[in-house]
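User: Show me an example of a complex going from sequences to structure tokens.

Assistant: Sure. Here are the input components:
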Amino acid sequence: MSRSAVTDSRPQSQQVKGSGSLLRWRLTRLIGPSVLLGPAGLWLLLLLVVPVLLILRISLVPGLRPEQAITNYGLDNYLQILQPTYLRVLLRSVTFASGTTALCLVVGFPVAYWLALIAPKRWRNLLLVVFILPLWTSSLLRTYAWITLLRTSGVINLVLSSLGLPEQNLMNTTGAVLVGMTYSFLPYMVLILYASLEKLDLRLLEAAADLGASPNVAFWKVTVPQTLPGIAAGGLLVFVTSLGDFVVPTLLGGPSSMTISRLIYNQFLGVSRNWGFGSALSIVLISAVSIAIALLLKYGDRNPDGFS
Amino acid sequence: MPRRSSFRPNSSRRLFLQGSAAAIAGVALSNCRGGVSDVQSGSQAADSSSPTSSGSGTLNIYTWADYTDDELIQQFTDATGIEVSVDVYDSNETMLAKLQAGGGDTYSVIYPSDYMVTQMVELGLLTKLDQSQLSGLETMQEKWKNPVYDENNTHSVPFVWGTTGLIYNSAALSEAPEDWDYLWNNKDKLSRRITLLEDVRETLGAVLKSLGYSYNSTDPAELEAAYQKLLELKPALASFKSFGWQDELLGGDVLVSMVYSVEGVPVSQEDTDFKYVIPSSGSSVWTDTMVIPAAAPNAEAAYQWINFNLQPEVAASMAERLYLASPNEAVLDLLPEAILSDPSLFPSEELLARCEGIAPLGEVSALYDEYWTKVTSA
């Protein structure tokens, strides 16, 4: 154990005292970590672990309503999710989230690349702040702004019709949801990609150029692989947050925009008040997100510098 | 069931609340089941131990956004010296969830709708009202003296009633909607220009009614038929919206919206291009009431609030400001003829006879929810 080195460095007098004092010393060694980690640990335990376990318990009671006592356990709630109706809801949520992630990557990468590598150095921090500025307002307000832009009598259609172009049905569509969610989550993607691109070793690009690689080849063979961890982390963050987004699909989506978060809401606060089913859906969402994060932790950060 | 929402200024805040509610739903709700949730009610619990301290303290009421205003609260505080703090909800079920999650000892007065009164009585959440402490009930209209949802008003005091109907842009539509079938008959012309309530009981209920069935049908075959008929209308729908429909309707993006009268009538009063109509084959008619939760703090003040709202002058002035239809004959006597003759607020008895109240469904509500998920995910 590497700790032995630390132990050895203690004064000789402490070493030779009896095993009692060694135990005491070991205990004092635990105080540091518990003082430092205790509050956060307690916080996580009380506000994350315990509630999730409670949700798990409720999810195992078939069709539990709030006023009912728990009498029997079973997997009925989870089997209910396997019905086509609910699978379709899950599929839509995943589609919305993957679409948003892809759009964020396509739009965000050039921006982060420009910020990290091309923009004048002294402006970088300011430009970054400008880019994150939208995050300072409520996501609800930003979504309402999109309604003003997208609706039939909105700004975009006003511009189109003044150019003599036909009116477009933009509001209450899947496209509107994707645009709204991409806008909401783009800053996260840009921030993470920026952090990743900023660390890019420019000497490698010079070496690639020396060895005859065109800028295009160098980009795909050097820059992209080196920023892959950033792409994975940014993509995951956007995917996870957009998977559970409630506001944008509700406000911008059309009559067919039921997502898993809205479905969960309906189970708790809707007409059927089926807390058991709602909890099962929550557990599915929590598990999906946790698995994605676990995969990222296991594979995402492997060899982040590419060559070191 | 999401019920009436506020007028524009509040809807964004409410949606934000809904959003955060969904975000924290799992955590918060599970906490509540564990019984760890009386954080917010700590100070109120202290009040409940001394209910005799009337004329002091704060009265917490939990109500629909449209049912109080600053003027009313100021009048009450001036008259009694009791401060009032108002929280709003947008659906009976949200209110019930909060109460069941341990908020029952926070509020002194709540405004549940008819069917919810029945449900809350069954769950033992309401105080049996001490009739000797109430005044002004004797002038209630006959219909509300012994309502089906609460025998002899044992637990509730009728506050306001209304309907569900359609509000439409009369400047843009050549033919005025008269019945639900108007939507199906004009679905090509109205493509993506209709909004329906994001409320399965009302929306599916209306389709059931248009098929000649009951608003509260529990027959699976009838529900299936209604579901199929609603699917036919989907290409004509912009979205399902209980709140925030005002912007799109007033802006001309949407031409017909299904709304609650308490929301729709004020819009039609502000702009005469927009007209509220109760479909001729019938719709839902509802009564919202004032109740005192079983664990209410400061019950004395709660009775004072209810009695204050029962005063004909107070209620009449509210009815004029907020376009509320009162079930109290003494209030109607004080209202101008222009309001009393408005069929959107006071429809004919003949039409009302075709309307139904929303009734609790029990187990069948799961089927409604399933069809709702099907409709919104098809």
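The lines above are the inputs; the final block is the predicted structure for all two components together. Confidence is low (pLDDT under 50) at residues 1-16 of chain A.
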